[in-house]
Design a protein that fits this description.
Blueprint lengths: L3 H14 L13 H6 L33 H9 L9 E3 L8 E4 L5 E9 L6 H18 L3 E11 L6 H18 L2 E9 L4 E10 L15 E4 L5 H9 L5 H12 L3 H10 L3 E4 L4 H13 L2 E5 L9 H6 L5 H10 L3 E3 L5 H8 L7 E5 L4 H10 L6 E7 L5 E5 L52 H15 L6 H14 L3 H13 L4 H15 L1 H13 L1
Parallel strand pairs: 4-5, 9-13, 10-13
Antiparallel strand pairs: 1-2, 2-3, 3-6, 4-6, 7-11, 7-12, 8-11, 9-12
């Protein structure tokens, strides 16, 4: 029921002042009153069913892309005095993920705050992401989060309170999953929705993980795929598929808790989480603070499906450009690194994974433990070199000793492993096959002539020649594993078996691929055997 007397009293005051009393930038009557017959200054609210509102349509920059860029942020921080308190073990000077304050020889506080705009449309999911993202800074420092304070900005005069309730509920549920108690919070009336948390945790001062402890020879492990910023931007424009939006949301709501526990158990000393400044921004800080040069191999970097397609169509947010402006001065890219590849590495991530610098002799234990904890995306994406000048070198393909590690004692091979793999068809399985089950055409070809030409080519490749058809199937198995094509692996293993190739021969072909591809290829093959 509208209180007409209250409305009249409030509006008369606004008209007399020449300014709306709840927003001095506009006159009275305001546009909301003219179009909706609602006076927000009198406490009246729209009664629309806004639970279905798409949150990303309400903001200019989605997720961590809304953060102030590194260039401007560093200009601001440069003008501030240094912190001289001896109990501050990690402060602003190293641009780390969280601050650390020493309480005793056995305990220190880890503190962080993170607030950003929606990266997804669903309020509940946004709340989960906000919580996971805020906790990630504590996990990256090796800390255990204990309590949190919510910080929320919300347009309460134009959106239903039910939307805000869903945001808060999503955050509470995720904090409960993490074992963190929400002890209070703060809210402001804002035009754009924003949400996050100030989180407090504890850490042993002797076991703090920082971005300044990376060492030459360490391998770089990334625990989540890249591309959520590009996906969110595509979603704002209605260009992203439901499947990739769901995949990105699932990744953003996933806690980095298990990854943090694994790296602590293995004995890692250096890590950071990958969020708003992109992989190259956060890695650049690690290289700078640790005094090392980093080498990244793009073909090893996990990237969400469809992301490269979006980038090729120009779906590149302003956040990419802002990150590039700051971080590119440290980056030296090989000639075969394309602009599209670089954009993915600069893409601002929301609730991204951990970037872990791990000694080479510990990487196998780290990756195996991550896989055991359900992390199927973690892989080695590069290594740290001994040069003291901070640089990030970008290459398309990895070369070096870490790709030749002795990985045979990992427990990957087991009796009858091959029998577990079911034939789902190759990546071109809807093309016509020849009498031997080979795939002569391309499923995505648009021209029958092209398919016929490809069919003839494939027939000639698989035909008996200087290399027998039997050995060609073994080659196909190795190449399928190396290229991480799961359907190809399955169909070629089954084809080899039908030709009488033994389990031992197939296993040796697979290990040849792993010896060239290293730990990421081993993790890929292990994941498909466990799914079978």
């Amino acid at each position: 029921m509208i209180d007409l007397e209250k409305r009249k009293r409030i509006m008369q005051r606004s008209v007399k002042l020449g300014h709306c009393i709840c927003n001095p930038k506009q006159g009275c009557p305001c546009i909301v009153f003219k179009t909706k017959d609602v006076c927000p200054c009198a406490g009246e609210r729209l009664e629309q069913a806004v639970e279905d509102v798409a949150l990303t349509t309400l903001v200019e920059k989605a997720g961590c892309a809304s953060k102030i860029n590194q260039n401007d942020l560093k200009k601001v921080l440069t003008g501030l005095p240094e912190i001289s308190n001896p109990n501050v073990l990690v402060g602003t000077n190293t641009c780390d993920d969280a601050g650390v304050y020493k309480l005793s020889d056995e305990m220190a506080l880890v503190q962080t705050v993170d607030v950003f705009t929606p990266s997804v449309d669903d309020p509940y999911t946004f709340g989960q992401i906000a919580a996971a993202n805020s906790l990630s800074d504590v996990y990256a420092m090796g800390g255990e989060p204990l309590t949190a304070l919510s910080v929320i900005g919300f347009p309460i005069e134009t959106l239903s309170h039910r939307v805000m309730t869903q945001m808060l509920r999503g955050g509470m549920d995720k904090m409960t999953e993490a074992g963190v108690a929400i002890v209070g919070g703060h809210s402001i009336n804002d035009k754009e929705p924003k949400f996050g948390y100030a989180v407090t945790g504890v850490v042993n001062p002797s076991r703090i993980i920082t971005n300044a402890k990376a060492r030459p020879g360490d391998l770089l492990v990334l625990t989540k795929p890249l591309g959520v910023g590009i996906i969110s931007f595509a979603g704002q424009m209605g260009m992203a598929s439901p499947s990739v939006l769901d995949a990105a949301a699932s990744s953003m709501t996933e806690l980095n808790k298990a990854a943090a526990e694994v790296m602590l158990k293995v004995g890692v000393e250096a890590a950071t989480d990958v969020t708003g400044f992109g992989l190259l921004g956060h890695l650049g800080e690690m290289a700078t603070q640790s005094g090392v040069t980093a080498e990244i191999y793009f073909d090893q970097v996990p990237v969400f499906d469809e992301v490269m397609d979006y980038v090729s169509r120009g779906v590149i947010s302003g956040g990419v450009e802002r990150n590039k402006e700051h971080s590119s001065k440290l980056v030296v890219a090989d000639a075969d690194i394309t602009e599209e590849m670089a954009c993915v590495l600069y893409d601002p991530q929301t609730s991204g994974g951990l970037l872990i610098a791990v000694p080479e002799d510990k990487v196998e234990a780290l990756l195996n433990s991550l896989l055991d904890r359900g992390n199927r995306h973690a892989c080695v994406i590069g290594r740290l070199l001994p040069e003291s000048e901070a640089r990030v070198l970008l290459k398309t393909t990895a070369f070096g000793s870490f790709r030749e590690q002795n990985l045979q004692d990992t427990g990957l091979r087991e009796e009858n492993t091959m029998d577990k793999i079911k034939t789902d068809g190759c990546c071109c399985s809807n093309a016509e096959t020849d009498g031997n089950g080979h795939l002569p055409g391309l499923a995505t070809a648009t021209s029958q002539d092209t398919q016929k030409m490809m069919g003839a080519f494939m027939n000639s490749v698989y035909a008996e020649g200087a290399i027998t058809s039997r050995n060609k199937e073994l080659l196909a198995i190795a190449l399928s594993v190396l290229s991480k094509c799961e359907p190809c692996v399955k169909i070629h293993i089954n084809e080899a078996k039908s030709m009488g190739v033994s389990e031992d021969e197939i296993s040796e072909a697979i290990w040849m691929a792993i010896s060239f591809g290293g730990a990421p290829v081993m993790m890929f093959y292990r994941s498909i055997t466990e799914k079978a």
